[in-house]
Design brief:
The structure is a single chain. By secondary structure, the chain is α/β, with parallel strands linked by helices. Helix content is 29%, strand content 23%. The strands form three sheets. Strands 3, 5, 6, 8, 9, 16 and 17 form a seven-stranded mixed beta sheet that branches. Helix 8 links the parallel strand 11 and strand 12. The longest helix is centred in the middle third of the chain and has 15 residues.
Length: 372
């Protein structure tokens, strides 16, 4: 099998195309153990969470085969797997919920304690890492998926079976971007018809949140990003107004008076989270979706909470229940209510993965897909 492996981090601002931090190489092809499935990857998708591992702002054990958003077909199944069959069309999910921990029992599989443990260590839900170089060196798994490859062994809990007729280029974006952005609006914030929403950050997750707010019947959907090249795309996704951070206060005042009901922070910036708290009305909610640097600290006036009833909500993987939400969101796409195809910038061969990092860091792409 072939996979893109990160051996050492490269600081942000580096030309990844020149540095080539991801090495596309041959690895020994593992077979699934009990509770696991082997998947032939059709397309993988590049996300800012991948870039954060490459630049060191998300600390992961190296070497690691990166990638966590993909679609493919089941190639083999391990012992005890009876509800997935060879040939099944599957979306890969980066939180393989165990089903028995405190979070899973509470109906919040995105916060699975066991998954957080093994995702952090580079292992799989049902055992230690399987990936090896031909010389026997261990390669860690990225979020239980390692999708920048032509093949992956994952936990059964890391796949959601979907209909055969869903195009791979659509399905590839549902395991992270769509699930996270949609879930932040529909699950975490539970936006209701007639409410107002502002989305800060118009990457694939932020644009998915824009789509979700429009789908939920929000009266105003204000999309904010300093990269003006994304504004037209946000309007196509359902935004009613677009602007830069300098425009935010004016646009929100025009659309929602003293503040929006919900602000979605999809940047990964403590400063933007603090700004969002200023932009929501009394009783409003800020949903933090982006991943700030682990050393970032948030300082806000404490009286905004008890004094104004504002809420600051964290949302990991959109508080999703993947087996429920991915088929549901695909249904919205089938109905023409969720134009996910707008997120797909282009498709490149896996060999160009490092150049893809440059394009993502520069804001030139929303979702670039890679074909192994």
């Amino acid at each position: 099998m072939r996979a893109a492996v990160l051996y050492s981090t490269v600081p942000a601002g580096t030309s990844y195309g020149k540095a080539q931090p991801l090495v596309v190489q041959e690895l020994s092809r593992p077979e699934p153990r009990a509770g696991e499935v082997g998947v032939t990857i059709a397309y993988s998708s590049l996300c800012h969470s991948d870039l954060s591992v490459v630049d060191g702002s998300r600390v992961r054990p190296l070497p690691m085969a990166l990638g966590h958003e993909a679609v493919g077909r089941v190639a083999s199944v391990g012992e005890g797997v009876t509800d997935v069959s060879v040939g099944d069309h599957v979306v890969l999910v980066f939180v393989p919920s165990c089903g028995s921990c405190r979070a899973c029992r509470a109906g919040r599989p995105a916060l699975c304690h066991r998954a957080a443990e093994v995702n952090g260590s580079g292992d799989l839900l049902h055992g230690e890492a399987l990936l090896r170089t031909p010389e026997g060196e261990r390669i860690n798994h990225h979020l239980g998926v390692s999708a920048f490859a032509d093949y992956a062994v994952v936990a059964r809990e890391s796949v959601v079976v979907i209909d055969d007729d869903v195009p791979d280029t659509i399905a590839a974006m549902f395991g992270c971007a769509v699930l996270t952005g949609m879930g932040a609006v529909l699950n975490t914030a539970a936006v209701q018809p007639g409410q107002s929403v502002a989305v800060f950050g118009l990457g694939a997750v932020g644009l998915s949140a824009v789509m979700a707010a429009a789908l939920a019947g929000a009266s105003a959907v204000i999309a904010i990003d300093p990269n003006t090249s994304k504004h037209g795309l946000a309007l196509k996704c359902g935004a009613t107004a677009v602007g830069t951070p300098d425009d935010a206060a004016r646009l929100i005042a025009e659309a929602a008076g003293d503040g929006v009901d919900t602000a979605i922070e999809a940047v990964g910036s403590a400063r933007v989270i603090a700004s969002c708290l200023e932009h929501v009305t009394r009783g409003g909610a800020v949903v933090s979706v982006g991943l700030p640097h682990p050393t970032a600290e948030l300082t806000v006036p404490a009286l905004q909470f008890a004094g104004a009833g504002k809420r600051l909500l964290g949302s990991y993987m959109g508080d999703a229940v993947p087996n429920r939400d991915i088929p549901l969101y695909l249904g919205y796409w089938r109905e023409g209510r969720l134009p996910v195809e707008l997120l797909h910038t282009d498709t490149r061969p896996l060999a160009e993965i490092n150049e893809g990092l440059d394009a993502l860091a520069a804001g030139q792409v929303v979702r670039r897909l890679f074909q192994a």
